[in-house]
Queue: 3 jobs
Job 1
Amino acid sequence: MKHHCAAIFGYNEYSKQILKQLKGSYRNIGVFVISDAEFLEAQEDGYSVEKFDLSDNWEEIEVRFDVDSLIVFCALTDDAENVFLTISLRATFEKLFIIALAQDNESMMKMKSAGADKVMPILQIAANVIADILGKPIMTQVLHDVLYEDSDLTIMEMEIGANSPINGQYLHDIHFKRDFDLILLAIVDQEQGTTFSFASKGQNHHIDEGDILVLMGYKDKLQRLKKWNAGVDACK
């Protein structure tokens, strides 16, 4: 279903980017924070903000939002706290749509086990990609649904290993759309300190071990590419 209100837990650089993208898409947005510093900062930035602790019984959520149309972002900076928060929310609201942020793959698995409907890596890929295409309303809406709603499409980070067939090739020599039915959004160059390079900007990037490709597509197509990248399936 389409969500009409959103609750964001945590006020940090990533949640700020999410909030920027939610403006205009949701009629009721609330920020929930643990620390006084985050409370003051969110308040100064003009957001409706509430204090909470991890032992809350979430009555405020039920009073303030229509839970059936609510989407929640567990965006605390501490992964362990995000896991606990996800467990607590899921135990109280069986059908609540929860998106959790995670630092790494291990934490992502924990978030899923805790009851998150969708898990996003903490690396600020989504926000940067969205910022790059804000001038294209149709693509903005599509990407919004991919990231924040229940969509068959998804976004995947894929690190290039030493034995990857992609290692050592140039970007223009790989046809992700033709061969894999996927869209390459961006590259993170490990030699430049996780610098983003958007695929739309046309650079013929030399792909090296440790680089990260950011791709969008259907889950089965992404898994096929992931296996090929790992050398499991040598056939396209």
Job 2
Amino acid sequence: MTAIALTIAGSDSGGGAGIQADLKAFSALRAYGASVITAITAQNTQAVTAVQEISTDVIAAQIDAVLSDLSVNAVKIGMLSSPEIISTVAKGLKGFDGPIVLDPVMVAKSGDALLKDEAVSALISELLPMATVLTPNLPEAAKLLDIDEAASSEDMQSQGQALLNLGPQAILMKGGHASGDVCSDFLISDGDTVELTAKRVDTKNTHGTGCTLSSSITAGLAKRLPLNAAVREAHTYLQQAILKADDLNIGSGHGPVHHFHQVWTE
């Protein structure tokens, strides 16, 4: 059987994040990628200059078109900018019995907002309870909990537990925004916490890391890996994609990670 992963997210015209990053990561990890576009962004390595939301009717039609024909094994949810779009996606996925990876995309690497403030409560009430795993970075976790950002690994784990109480089956607290030579992520589920560490890479080319990690996990789940194994595979893949990011020369701002580092040659 072919592993099929579906991404529901926004389009990044610069190709480094969003739908484009998701499809690249799916392919790199041997999963067939389908997509539902929720918004079109005019975006490059420096800024997001325009955002056009897709109508909820078209979003619903895309979800129906994919799920009615393709045997989707896992779904990744990324940029959903409004309460109406969040509700549309939640309704469209009702009845889907595979794993769902929810990446609560709120701010682009450039600092531009991608989620309206009024949409946060809808995200919490409608989608968090549907998530197999939620993958927030430190600012996103703090926003969801309406508290200060975690300042230590203990804070990260505590906030992960608080997010777990909102309904997801597991939380992957990402430490990329923390400081120090080692980056720690924490996979937290009921009664279990797993720490994943990696040496922090000195590069500005980290555009799309959050999208890439969540879609990599989705690819693993589509291949029917257990969650812990899918997260470990994705963690290793992303670390190498960051290490090889400077091999690319894309734009003059925050360039993308190297999604195809395993197959491209000099």
Job 3
Amino acid sequence: MSLEFFIAKRIHFQQGRKNVSRPAVRIATIGIALGLAVMIIAIAVVIGFKQQIRNKTIGFGGHIQITNFDNNNTYEMNPIKVDNALIKKITSLEGVNHVQRFATKPGIIKTDTEFQGIVIKGIDKGYDWNFFKSNLVEGKVLDVSGDTPSNQVIISKYLTNLLGLKLGDSFYTYFIQDRVRARKFKIVGIYSTNFIEYDKLFLIADMRQVQALNDWTPDSFSGLEVLINDFNKIDEVGDAVYSMTANRFNKEGSAYSTQTIKQLNPQIFSWLDLLDMNVWVILILMLAVAGFNMISGLLILILERTNMIGILKSIGATDWSVRKIFLYHSFFLIGKGMLWGNVIGLSLCAIQYFTGVVPLDPTAYYVATVPITFNWLYIILLNVGTLAASLLMMIGPSYLITKITPAKIIRYE
């Protein structure tokens, strides 16, 4: 243990109750604690919000979509025909988790009192149900393994409330083509993602129903959805899928179009990226407030210990040696504040994570409660960055010690 560390430890842990610096030190410590707590909460909430919105968008469209190049950006898509060999090649790509077929068809639900425009999303028995199972509030997922097309559908809670439907009800959906076609569907499951933009739009049904409505052959469908393991590699995997399909044509001579979910929904992901700016603003403001509190506390400590500084210098202590004493002291104060900041911030996040006690309006925020995600890497980096930034901010004020001379102190005494 160095002499400077020993002296700093004695000053910090054996302060008298009548010290002038005590209130300032407490304020500085509280500032560090509250600042770090706010930063932890901000990061947990923003990461949680971005992750939930991102996962909901992916749940309805996959990470990467392969469709007909001649599509016009509507849900009335031209079909593609993809052989199993190409699907196996895409599935074998590094990072790809699953490949599934889908088909979409716009229509209108008509009940006795209401009507609503919707999109039927047809799926087959190879569909990954994990997303809808996690958001299912009533009933079950579809069983499309039979030899004949199923008339079962999964509908959102938003649409059931809007149309006055419930689990087990049947309804007619009308499709406008050369002539109006109608299909009767039965509700076997109700989901709720609170993502109103999609909840009010999509019904999940047997893909064979869409193929029959469009007069497609069994090997024709709107496109493929590619699910990957790591969203952070979506551009890399997207480029690999594009390279595999760019120079290929389906059986009817049409080219393939490959787009990531970020390209399909640029407005959503641009909005999510803007949230990062909010986090940086909060981090900078909180660090500035905590830093200024610590600077003022350190200056008061130095002024209060002027006599001790003069004595140390008179017996041969260097300016840097004395400055190290106060930097160690600052380290103890910052560490104490950070400890309480972590306790407060993580405790509040844990309460919200397990109870969802703070609600949100899903029509405005797309989630029913404030979302929390514990990204421990970011939390550790936040602690390290806060400690480093706070200590760096202490180096400047500690330079005041070099202006204190033993002769002036003795004359003052």
